[in-house]
Specification:
This protein has 340 residues and is an alpha/beta fold. Helices cover 20% and strands 22% of the residues. It is rod-shaped and about 110 Å long.
């Protein structure tokens, strides 16, 4: 099950209290103070781990607590520190502090191995040996351990992919993903077959590949929550390249592109700056006698209306899939160079 949102509560460990103690040795009637410090409480960290691609575990494990530090002992013995707690999350996770109605972004983890401190452990209290002075040689007080931090966190996962597939329901996105990659999404001829985002690794050659993401189909009004759109639109915010997939049999493919483009911009204006391609699917459904004339008309119309070039493919026959794969890969390489 794919879960891309979770709320959890985390608590760091409390610091151990300092000890009050005095030396007890034979022939030493009044030994000095020897109370040791308390141990430090464990902290809570989130760490990006590519072995995870969902926040599912946090649906069932909502409370997470690090170990508290131990109390100090005599003979200036420091109490043991509590173990830190590391919670693995998928790369692409954003973390928000929502304690007491706040909504403050603490950070995001996008690279495997990245670590974020979310709750710091309490400091260990100082033992009475620390408070001895020339005028106060036998202090009978020690410092208590520092308090733990308790936070309520909101975790939001945005998938990390190179190419994001955007299209209306039943445009052929899942079929395309299954043909280009090793992913096996559910495919059927009715709307909203895809109910959760899918990732597929597209192998270009023996050494090179890229990741493609398919989200549930967008409908008009998706940015306002209609259909399944707003629930998953965030998963294409981090993609390097958008691929608009439009059914060639649509009554108005130009209007389809306009609506899709506008929905993305209304959800996030930054989407307008994201590089993209327009691809018309289901080329195999066009009869050969009308094909050439119809395709020329569509290409010309996209060029005149939007100043866009388009590509046409068939996921069923494989027509132009090899070319599409190469074009996508070349664009990703260029975009990677720009980022560097």
């Amino acid at each position: 099950m794919f879960i891309d949102y979770a709320r959890i509560r985390v608590t760091s460990g409390r610091g151990g209290s300092g000890a009050i103690g005095f030396r007890r040795e034979k022939f030493v009637a009044k030994g000095g103070p020897d109370g040791g410090d308390g141990g430090k409480g464990g902290s809570v960290y989130l760490v990006a781990d590519n072995n995870y691609n969902t926040l599912l575990k946090f649906r069932f494990e909502k409370f997470h607590k690090a170990e508290s530090g131990q109390r100090g002992g005599g003979n200036n013995m420091t109490g043991a520190s509590g173990n830190d707690l590391y919670l693995p999350v998928p790369p692409g996770t954003e973390i928000f502090d929502i304690t007491d109605g706040k909504h403050e972004k603490l950070g995001e983890l996008t690279e495997t191995g990245e670590v974020l401190l979310v709750a710091k452990g309490g400091n260990g209290g100082r033992g009475n040996a620390r408070f001895a002075t020339a005028t106060q040689k036998a202090p009978r007080y020690a410092k208590p351990g520092g308090d733990a931090e308790e936070l309520e966190l909101e975790l939001v996962l945005k998938l990390m992919a190179d190419v994001g597939l955007v299209g209306f329901p039943n445009a052929g996105k899942s079929t395309l993903l299954s043909k280009l990659s090793s992913a096996h999404p559910k495919i059927a001829s009715y709307e909203f077959t895809t109910l959760e985002p899918m990732l597929g690794v597209v192998q270009v050659n023996e050494y090179n590949n890229f990741v493609m993401a398919d989200i549930p189909g967008i409908i008009e009004g998706a940015h306002d929550g209609k259909g399944l759109g707003i629930q998953f639109l965030r998963h294409i915010q981090r993609t390097k390249l958008l691929l608009f997939l439009i059914d060639i049999n649509s009554h108005n493919p130009f209007e389809d592109y306009t609506v899709l483009h506008q929905e993305l911009i209304m959800y996030d204006p930054e989407m307008d700056r994201k590089p993209h391609m327009i691809v018309l699917s289901k080329l195999d459904t066009i009869g050969e006698e009308d094909k050439a004339e119809m395709l020329d008309m569509i290409k010309q119309e996209f060029a005149e209306r939007f100043h866009e070039s388009i590509m046409m493919i068939s996921s069923i026959t494989g027509e132009n899939l090899g070319r599409l794969k190469k074009v996508l890969y070349d664009k990703i390489i260029e975009l990677n160079k720009i980022e560097i």
